[in-house]
Amino acid sequence: MFSLNCRRIITKLCSQHKINITSQVFSHQAATQLWTKNIQQNFLESQKLIMGAGSCKAFSHRRSNNAVGHNCGKSDEYVEQVVCNENDIGENEMKNFDLGDSKVLIVKQNGKISAVGAKCSHYGALLSTGALGDGRIRCPWHGACFSLANGDIEDFPGPDPIPCYQVKIEQGQVKVRAKKSELQSNKRTHVMAKRQENDFRTYIVVGGGPSGAICAENLRAKGFTGRIVMITNESVLPYDRPKLSKIMDANADSVLLRTQQFYDDNSIEVMLSTSASSLDAENKEILLSNGYKIKYDKIYIATGASARKLSIPGSDLKNIFVLRSIEDAHAIDEQLGEETHVAILGVSFIGMEAAAYCVKKVEKVTVIGRDAYPLRAFGQEVGERLMEYFEEKDVNFMMNNGIKEIVGNDDGTIKSLKMFDGSELKADVLIMGVGTTFNTEFLKNSGIAINSNGSIDTNKYLETNIPDVYVGGDIANAPLLNTEHREAIGHYGLAQYHGKIAAMNMCGMKEELKTVPYFWTMLFGKSIRYAGHGRASEIKIEGDLEEMQFVVFYMNNEGKVIAMASCSRDPIVSQFAEYTSMGKILTKADIESDPFGWTKKMHE
Questions:
Q1: Cis (ω within 30 of 0) for the bond into 238?
Q2: What is the value of pTM for the model shown?
Q3: What class, spelled out in words, does domain 320-434 have in CATH?
């Protein structure tokens, strides 16, 4: 029930905008119409002015979260100087130049010179070594993309945009003005809308993983002024999940994407250790594990997946783990010691990264796989070379094998593993990396169409078959760029991208999915990157597998290059991702005569 004052406000505003409302029914529908019509649009227009819209000519500087006005600040907060001559940089070229005690990236495209942060806001890669697309730069390490117009992050991973600085051309000299703090950090936060108490809409985000986290903050960044509630079954705020298999002893605070203060400042409610029990889509209501029911206007579901644990004799013993949450990582790390024997079931990325982490801490690591080689996504030749590389680092393998039974000690901990081939393997710790199951069970009676594998079909706007219900991340069987297919792909960066697109569409922007799947792994200091998707019928390798310096082209039956992988050959995978994003098609014929000639034709 609204207070008398609230009723008066609603009545006055609705009268001004010719929205009919009775005195008996004060629903939030009227407020929804009003705020969607005016406040959100006004905020977005002011945001364009603040960020310089298409020109980067307004100063990009850190501001209070709820501010919308523009304040250049004191002069000693800024540095301004000539960084180069106009002719020092060619068309479609990127170069770093000194600005004060830091660097700034200068880019010329379509005759226009832009100045942006020199490093990726994710892990700090030099963007000058990345791929220049059409009006944006793609990071060479993990594929994040940033707009030249305003520094906004357009593709992921990482939540933050990069700074975009003022540029003046005076007598052939390029002068740049930048805020000192942004030069040092090479990142900035979004300009956020302020929560309006008389905006009665509620948008719910179910899931506190990478997709849910990005959606929640982008709702504010895109101008939503109603209530935002993010529900997560995790006990901590959203964090950088890919780090878990590489740094199992990481402190929770060190991997958080945002602090509690950030969520408080932007009026984003976060419900920790809470899961969704059921969804009543007809009445727009969600029931939570704590017994609460919350009404919503729109909802984004990004509940991700749970790690599978094989049900075999002895699987209830102690010291058997999966690796999905920060608690899982810490529990594994606590059991590692100099005399520990670790067995890892599964030869996917989680299993291999866990092996690389554990081997330096324990007596012995043995990886068990049912296939002949690990990491099948890369193909046989690369998979076999990676297995050799791991063996060089003292990791053992039992391939074409599996666990028949887990044998325990008297204290309930595991002792050994009885294998399919009849052998027995000593093991104090067993880590299972044998796939995941989608967390969509709670939606069974909601009316949302669920596929047999638990994924949910979406359209190119991440909408489901139920109005105002959006789905993203691992569980989304979503359309892929330049194909007629849908796929559910469990990539971290893609999940974050889904979160942004969902937020934009929940705010009425009608933004289509336009991304190339991109993932990476770090194995004993070697980064392997992969962009694209699909089943390859032919593989072409350029470079030296033995030296771990190579590029792999994956082609389908029609001779189209559908994916690319590399090791120690940056930025080739980012170039391919950007090439594909620009609507270009790379073929077998293109790479036969000159495998890398296409990189010189990015802008033709």
A1: no
A2: 0.88
A3: alpha beta
Q: Could you name the CATH architecture of 193-306+441-514?
A: 3-Layer(bba) Sandwich (3.50)
Q: How many CB atoms lie within 10 A of CB 515?
A: 24
Q: The tokens 């620009």 sit on which residue?
A: 582
Whole-angstrom distance, CA of residue 78 vs CA of residue 182: 9
Kindly state the tokens that stand for 594: 């000159």
Q: Dump pLDDT digits (tens) for 554-596.
A: 999 999 999 999 999 999 999 999 999 999 999 999 999 899 9
> Which DSSP category does 466 fall into?
S
**Amino acid (one-letter) located at 265:** D
C-alpha gyration radius of the chain: 26
Strands (E), 135-200: 136-138, 145-147, 153-155, 164-170, 173-179
**pLDDT at position 482:** 83
Q: Which residues pair with 430 in a beta bridge?
A: 320, 343
Query: Residue 302 in 3-state DSSP?
Result: coil
Query: Can you tell me which residue has the tokens 């029914």?
Result: 25
CB 407 within 8 Å of CB 414 = yes
Stretches in the chain below the pLDDT threshold 50: 1-5, 8, 11-37, 39, 45-55, 57-73
Average pLDDT along the chain: 91
- Asked if the bond preceding 571 is cis, omega within 30° of 0, the reply is yes
